[in-house]
């Protein structure tokens, strides 16, 4: 059971719960619509990893910067992209965050600090350093978070970015979700070190491993890293331990995951665990149900808005590509 002695306030925990349930119910809805044939997009499920994003984003300000990956829907929603705009972009509509020209793999929404979503594994880390350098130079007090996976930590760009961030004491947080798989390859088959976090020491960087399925541990770890970065005390590598409960992408095989590991993942499912934590704190069940009901309504409206929105006009291809042709 979670140690709540150093727990965030009730209000903050409910904020994290709302974010986690928004991720969870949106993820379920994406998969339901794909199953029903109402959507035809590439989709990377976040089932099992909801609390990592919810805890991290609850520790940030709206104007802090975020860089994420193809498995980024959890980060994007919990950072605050309005559901309607997110669904519209995922479904390629002109009303989306990138006018339907980015799609699920390239969600960008500077208004909520979501600066880059990339499918190139590991490529977000040096870009995060660039954003953090801009904040350091401007003195704007912003913190940059870059989300990536265990597999990405074996890409050269990870190591270059870690070294540079520590050298310049950049206000950046490297958030590695260790979900035990990189595509179809188990952690032990791609990495021989015991952990990712142990690598921080090699760069003189602060590194913290936490239980990414525990909202208290996840939030406290995230908050401390954010506070330090904002105070100018430099970067942190966070390794959030979690589990990808479904295949690499929607519809993908899962049979290579050992049964015992899948069962352990189900036992450690962060969603029922979070609800139980709140019930143990005497939060009324009706309050939790009301949060979920409001989320369902938000998603209903977002899906309706997205599917009723037009696709971009062909002429739109000319805009937002070269500087001279930025659309009005
Ligand atoms: C540079 C690069 N190499 C390979 C790939 C193919 N690829 C896509 S996802 C993925 C696995 C990444 O695993 P991890 O970083 O653990 O993230 P997860 O999918 O588990 O969230 C790979 C190898 C890619 N997209 N980019
Ligand atoms: Mg992984």
Features:
328 residues, alpha/beta, Rossmann fold, two-stranded antiparallel sheet, 43% helix, binds thiamine diphosphate
Q: What report would you give on this structure?
A:
There is one protein chain. The protein is an alpha/beta fold and about 325 residues long. It has one domain (about 20-310): Thiamin diphosphate (ThDP)-binding fold, Pyr/PP domains (Rossmann fold, 3-Layer(aba) Sandwich). The protein is about 45% helix and about 10% strand. It contains 11 helices and 8 strands. It has helices spanning about 10-35, 50-55, 75-80, 85-90, 125-140, 155-165, 185-190, 215-230, 260-265, 270-280, 285-310, and strands spanning about 65-70, 115-120, 145-150, 170-180, 180, 185, 205-210, 235-240. The protein has a 6-stranded parallel β-sheet with strand order 2-1-3-4-8-7, with helices on both faces. A two-stranded antiparallel ribbon has the order 5-6. α8 (about 215-230) links the parallel β7 (about 205-210) and β8. The relative contact order is 0.17. The mean pLDDT is about 95. Magnesium ion binds near residues 149 and 179.
Helices and strands, with pairings:
Layout: H1 10-35, H2 50-57, E1 65-69, H3 73-79, H4 83-90, E2 114-118, H5 124-138, E3 144-149, H6 156-167, E4 172-178, E5 181-182, E6 185-186, H7 187-190, E7 206-211, H8 215-230, E8 236-241, H9 259-267, H10 270-280, H11 285-308
Parallel strand pairs: 1-2, 1-3, 3-4, 4-8, 7-8
Antiparallel strand pairs: 5-6
Bound molecules: thiamine diphosphate (TPP) and magnesium ion.
Magnesium ion is lined by residues 149-151, 179, 181-182.
């Amino acid at each position: 059971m979670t140690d709540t002695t150093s727990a965030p306030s009730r209000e903050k925990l409910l904020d994290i719960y709302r974010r986690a349930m928004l991720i969870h119910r949106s993820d379920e809805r994406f998969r339901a619509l794909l199953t029903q044939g109402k959507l035809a997009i590439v989709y990377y499920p976040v089932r099992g990893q909801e609390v990592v994003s919810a805890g991290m984003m609850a520790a940030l300000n709206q104007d802090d910067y975020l860089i994420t990956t193809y498995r980024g829907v959890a980060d994007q929603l919990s950072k605050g992209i309005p559901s309607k705009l997110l669904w519209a972009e995922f479904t390629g509509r002109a009303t989306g965050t990138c006018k339907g020209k980015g799609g699920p793999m390239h969600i960008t929404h500077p208004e909520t600090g979501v600066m880059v979503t990339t499918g190139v594994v590991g490529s977000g880390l040096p870009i995060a350093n660039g954003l953090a350098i801009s904040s350091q130079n401007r003195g704007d007090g912003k913190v940059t978070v870059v989300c990536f996976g265990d597999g990405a930590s074996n890409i050269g760009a990870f190591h270059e970015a870690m070294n540079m961030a520590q050298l310049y004491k950049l206000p950046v947080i490297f958030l590695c979700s260790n979900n035990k798989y990189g595509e179809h390859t188990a952690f032990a088959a791609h990495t021989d070190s015991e952990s990712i976090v142990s690598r921080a020491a090699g760069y003189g960087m602060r590194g913290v491993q936490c239980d990414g399925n525990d909202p208290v541990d996840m939030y406290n770890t995230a908050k401390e890293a954010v506070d330090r970065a904002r105070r100018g005390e430099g970067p942190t590598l966070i390794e959030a331990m979690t589990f990808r409960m479904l295949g690499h992408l929607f519809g993908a095989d899962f049979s290579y995951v050992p049964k015992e590991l899948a069962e352990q993942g189900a036992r450690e499912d962060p969603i029922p665990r979070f609800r139980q934590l709140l019930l143990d704190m005497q939060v009324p069940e009706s309050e939790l149900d009301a949060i979920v009901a409001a989320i369902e309504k938000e998603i209903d409206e977002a899906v309706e808005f997205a599917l009723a929105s037009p696709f971009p006009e062909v002429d739109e291809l000319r805009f937002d590509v070269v500087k001279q042709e930025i659309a009005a």
